[in-house]
Amino acid sequence: MTASTRNKHTRRHVLALLSAVAAGAFAVSVPQLAQAQEKHVQEKQVLRIGYQKAASTLVLLKAHGTLEKILAPQGIEVKWAEFAAGPQLLEALNVGSVDFGYVGEAPPIIAQAAGADFVYSAYEIPTPEAESILVQKNSPITSVAQLKGKKIAFNKGSDVHWLVISLLKKGGIAYSEFQPIYLAPADARAAFERGAVDAWAIWDPFQTAAIKQLDAKVLASGSGAVSHHQFFLSARKYAAKNSAVVNTVLEEADKEGRWIRANYKEAALQLAPIQGLEPDVIEAGLRHYAHIYKPIDNKVLDEQQKIADTFYELKLIPKKISTRDAVLFPPKS
C-alpha cells in the first residue's frame, strides 16, 4: 500500500469515526432536548383569574394588560375567565379551574359550606349604596314591609341574597313570608320589565341602569342593613405556594382602584364597550363603590360569620362554618 493510499484510508476512517460520534451525540441530544423542553413547559406557571363583568377594577386590570406585563418576565401566564355572578365563580374555584377571584359577601359563605378550599385575601371597604331592592316606577309598593307575600327576583347565593334577608328582617318579614324568584341579572331584568315579579334585588352597574333606563325606583338600598363588602379570594393551595403572585395582583388592583377614583369619566368610557352600558350609567355605578381595598381583619371576618350563622339558621347552607378557617394566617387583633 502506497503512502497516498494509506493517507486516503486513514482520512476515510477518521471521517467515519467522526460521523459515528456525531450521530451518537445527536441521538443523545434529541431526548435531552425533549426533556429540557418538557421541563420548561412544566415550569411555566398559569394564574387563572375569575371575574364578573360588573367587577370594574378587575375588568380594567384585564383591559390594561398590567398583570401580563409584570408577570410575563417571571414565566407566569395570566388567563381570565368571565362569570355571570359570584356563585358561579366560586363553583369554578371549588372545582379547581380558577385560582383567584372577586365576589360579594354571600358567595364565600355558600362556597365554604360546600367544601371549597379558598382563603380571603383582601376586601373592599363597605359600599351599601351599590345594591338595592327596586320596584317598577308605577308600583304601589312604597315600603319593604309591603313585600310580604310578594315575588322578589335575585341571584341565589349572591350578595343581594343577604341584602334581601337583612332588609326583610328590618321590615318585619320572615324569610318564609315572601316568594324568592332566583334569576341571574339579565333574566331578572327581563322579568322585572314585564312585571312578572314585584321587586328586584340587584347591584351596580345593573342597579343604576334600571333606574336610568326603566325609571325603576329604589325601595331600599343596603345602607343601614348590610355592609356590602367585596372580597378578593384565592384558592388555598395557590395562595400558599404563590403568595408573591397574589400580593402582586392585590397591589395592582389597589393601583387600579386609585386610578378609577381619580378618573371616573375616563374609566366609564373605557368600560362602556365592555359592559355594554352608557358611560353615564357606568360612571354613576362606579361612584357607588369605594375602590379601596384592605387586608382581611377580624372585624370583617366577624361580619362574614354573622352572614354564615344566619344562612345556617335559614337552612340555606348545610352546616355551620367558621369564617376564620378561610384564612392563611389569623389576622392581628
Could you describe the 3D structure shown?
This protein is 49% helix and 17% strand. The strands form 2 sheets. It has a 6-stranded mixed beta sheet with strand order 2-1-3-10-4-11, with helices on both faces. A 5-stranded mixed beta sheet has the order 7-6-8-5-9, with helices on both faces. It is globular and about 60 Å long. The chain is of the alpha/beta class and 333 residues long. The model is unreliable at 2-42 (pLDDT under 50). It starts with a helix and ends in a 20-residue tail after the last helix. The protein has helices spanning 3-43, 56-64, 66-71, 86-94, 107-113, 159-170, 185-193, 206-214, 236-241, 243-262, 264-275, 279-286, 298-313; strands at 45-52, 76-83, 100-103, 118-124, 131-135, 151-154, 179-182, 199-203, 217-221, 230-235, 293-294.
Short recap of the structure:
This protein is α/β, with parallel strands linked by helices and 333 residues long. 49% of the residues lie in helices and 17% in strands. It has helices at 3-43, 56-64, 66-71, 86-94, 107-113, 159-170, 185-193, 206-214, 236-241, 243-262, 264-275, 279-286, 298-313, and strands at residues 45-52, 76-83, 100-103, 118-124, 131-135, 151-154, 179-182, 199-203, 217-221, 230-235, 293-294.
CA-atom Rg in angstroms: 28 Å
Strand order in space, largest sheet: 2-1-3-10-4-11
Main sheet summary: 6 strands, mixed
Order of helices and strands: HEHHEHEHEEEHEHEHEEHHHHEH
Spell out the blueprint of helices and strands.
Blueprint: H1 3-43, E1 45-52, H2 56-64, H3 66-71, E2 76-83, H4 86-94, E3 100-103, H5 107-113, E4 118-124, E5 131-135, E6 151-154, H6 159-170, E7 179-182, H7 185-193, E8 199-203, H8 206-214, E9 217-221, E10 230-235, H9 236-241, H10 243-262, H11 264-275, H12 279-286, E11 293-294, H13 298-313
Parallel strand pairs: 1-2, 1-3, 6-7, 6-8
Antiparallel strand pairs: 3-10, 4-10, 4-11, 5-8, 5-9
Helix pairs in contact: 2-10, 4-5, 8-12, 11-12
